[in-house]
Write a structure and sequence with these properties.
Chain A: Keywords: Oxidoreductase. Chain A: Pfam families: Fer2_4. Chain A: InterPro entries: 2Fe-2S-bd_N, 2Fe-2S_ferredoxin-like_sf, 2Fe-2S_ferredoxin-type. The complex is a heterodimer of chains A (97) and B (464). Chain A is mainly beta and 97 residues long. Chain A contains 1 helix and 8 strands; from the N terminus they run E-E-E-H-E-E-E-E-E. Chain B has 464 residues and is α/β, with parallel strands linked by helices. Chain B folds into 3 domains: 4-116 and 264-333, FAD/NAD(P)-binding domain (3-Layer(bba) Sandwich), CATH 3.50.50; 120-260 and 354-358, FAD/NAD(P)-binding domain (3-Layer(bba) Sandwich); 366-433, Orthogonal Bundle (Arc Repressor Mutant, subunit A). Chain B is built from 19 helices and 23 strands. The two termini of chain B are 13 Å apart. Classes of the chains: A mainly beta (97), B alpha/beta (464). At the A-B interface, strand 1, helix 1 and strand 5 of A face helix 2, strand 8, helix 5 and strand 9 of B. The structure holds FE2/S2 (inorganic) cluster. Residues 30, 53-56, 58-63, 74, 76 of chain A line the site of FE2/S2 (inorganic) cluster (FES).
Chain lengths: 97, 464
């Protein structure tokens, strides 16, 4: 069970799958979701199984979400800001150029 | 127009910050590109915004990062660009990066790779379930957001596992259990290294006091654990393992894995630097000169990206590289380079002991056939073994058959495991098996951003 150790200072809100999430300055999308107990961030591209944060440092890409309609964003590398619209990443990822 | 800078440093952890301070102090034009919004790297992550509460929980070794961060902020002539993701390095050290949704490039006279370490992959049954993270991930949540977890189980081995446990105790949420994988007889086998490490006994004492704190707080500790498996459908619900001949099952919704950290090789591999297998650290490291220059001229590695030596060494290596570059550029540096080399040797005395005691468990170096090793493409160890049996000689052939390392993480997570599985099944050394070829982009880039970007502009001296 997640728990914050600092007194409540929530000031930022954004949405995840339409649900309003309260966040604190300094949070990433991933940490705000983690604090809210949301663990399923995407469906794996191969089996469709749920995935969530794993490394929190931008290495594993298991936290991929759509941010304001843009796919393939790493939730753990995306700072929260007011009114972001975040949703689960479903399906494959294109990385080639 | 493309700017030309004397020194471009990738990464603003202890190594990158220290390198920038030294290079700039010698009058070299210095740029620091870093992905995070604040300096600190992972070890001092969010150091500038840490609350008193977090500093207390995270401890002295974290808090001391504040000094270096403020030295870095105050250094004259450092062009620090947070929020920059390097996605390619072209010929002649043309560093291409994305910042605020826009890509641009800087040409580096000298390039310093200070991209640090990542957690060693810990492939276990069930490790892809939501609720299972690395131990480092829980620490990052604590550092950036003051988030801790109640009822978590930490499993694996290494100093970080105990450090995290001690921090969670101080945060008022002691782990439900620690499931350590170090075989019981190993401590005796490491006696010679332990004696050598007495020269750096402050580390040993710190380690012991951490372990004591965790034990005293009443955390259940299982030693010598084997055959670890994580259970759950949709998310983790329990961890199963054997310890001292008894089967255990602990219900939990949070499992943190750790088996040490390894150099992040993405940039040095992309550049084609020569690497070698370090069998004590069980990972690849770039070949480095005494000044930490790689086999590619004018490319240096400072910090754990060159081999795991810890935060203090990373800082000293950063200073060393900054000064070595200044020396090459004809600026006098006095006796400091020699002093740093000596201090680094002293600092390294504890490593052989830690490496031997905490060598990764057999289960994660050689996972069962059914265990997924490539998380992105969901490829099991068994299918890699089959592909090797059918004649695939190395990681790149396995990649083209099975798509291992072709997903978005580009092998960051599976790379070392794939090498060790191929090495084991083919009987070849890890050096002969080698590693994935790393290609750009290092991170996926929105197509629209790429379309707006064009690198082939003439170089110009930076007017500044
Ligand atoms: S959690 Fe690993 S990249 Fe975000």
């Amino acid at each position: 069970m997640p728990k914050r150790i600092d007194p409540d200072t929530e000031t930022v809100t954004f949405t995840f799958e339409g649900q309003i999430i309260r966040a604190r300055p300094g949070d990433t999308v991933a940490s705000a979701l983690a604090a809210s107990g949301i663990r399923h961030l995407r469906d794996s591209a191969v089996s469709g199984e749920p995935r969530g944060i794993f490394c929190m440092m931008g290495a594993c890409f298991d936290c991929l979400v759509e941010v304001n309609g843009q796919p393939n964003r790493q939730a753990c590398m995306t700072p929260v800001s007011q009114d972001l619209a975040v949703s689960r990443q479903r399906g494959g990822v294109e990385v080639k150029i | 127009m493309t700017q030309l800078k004397d020194v471009v440093i990738i990464g603003a952890g202890p190594a990158g910050m220290a390198c920038a301070v030294e290079a700039a102090s010698k009058g070299l034009s210095t740029v620091v590109l870093d992905e995070n919004p604040q300096p600190g790297g992972q070890i001092y992550r969010a150091i500038e915004s840490a609350t008193e509460n977090r500093l207390r929980v995270l401890g002295q070794d974290y808090a001391r990062g504040r000094e270096l961060a403020s030295e870095f902020r105050q250094a004259n002539g450092v062009d620090y660009r947070p929020g920059s993701t390097v996605w390619n390095i072209g010929p002649d050290r043309l560093v291409e990066f994305s910042r605020d949704g826009k890509s641009s490039a800087i040409r580096a006279g000298h390039l310093v790779v200070a991209t640090g370490a990542i957690e060693r992959p810990c492939p276990l049954p069930g490790w892809t379930l939501p609720g299972v993270t690395t131990a480092g991930a829980l620490q990052i949540l604590l550092k950036t957001s003051g988030i801790t977890y109640e009822g978590a189980v930490l499993t694996g081995s290494g100093p970080l596992l105990w450090l995290l446990a001690a921090q969670m105790v101080d945060a008022g949420s002691p782990p439900k259990a620690i499931v350590e994988t170090v075989p019981r007889e190993r401590l005796f086998r490491t006696l010679p290294e332990l004696i050598a490490a007495l020269g750096a006994r402050e580390y040993l004492l710190k380690g012991m006091s951490m372990i004591r704190k965790v034990k005293r707080s009443g955390v259940r500790i299982h030693l010598g654990a084997e055959d670890i498996a994580i259970e759950g459908s949709g998310a983790v619900s329990a961890i199963r393992f054997r310890s001292k001949g008894t089967e255990h099952r602990i219900a939990t919704d949070t499992v943190a894995l750790h088996q040490g950290v390894v150099p992040n090789q993405q940039v040095t591999r992309l550049l084609g630097c020569r690497h070698f297998w370090d069998d004590n650290q069980k990972c690849f490291r770039p070949e480095l000169s005494e000044d930490r220059e790689t086999s590619c001229a004018h490319v240096y590695v400072a910090g754990d990206g060159g081999g795991i030596e810890g935060a203090k060494s990373a800082e000293m290596q950063g200073r060393l590289v900054g000064l070595a570059i200044a020396e090459k550029e004809g600026r006098g540096t006095g006796p400091r380079i020699t002093e740093l080399r000596l201090a680094l040797k002293r600092e390294a005395r504890v490593r052989p002991f830690l490496e031997k005691l905490y060598t990764p468990s057999r289960q994660i170096l050689h996972p069962d056939d059914a265990t997924v090793i490539c998380r992105c493409e969901e490829v099991t160890a068994g299918s890699v073994r089959e592909t090797v049996a059918q004649g695939a000689p190395g990681p790149n052939q396995v990649k083209s058959f099975l798509r291992t390392g072709m997903g978005p993480c580009q092998g960051r997570i599976c790379g070392l495991v794939v090498t060790s599985v191929i090495s084991e099944s083919s009987g070849k050394s890890p050096d002969d098996v080698d590693y994935y070829r790393i290609r750009p982009p290092l991170k996926p880039l929105p197509l629209a951003e790429l379309a707006d970007y064009s690198a082939d502009m003439p170089d110009s001296r930076d007017p500044a």
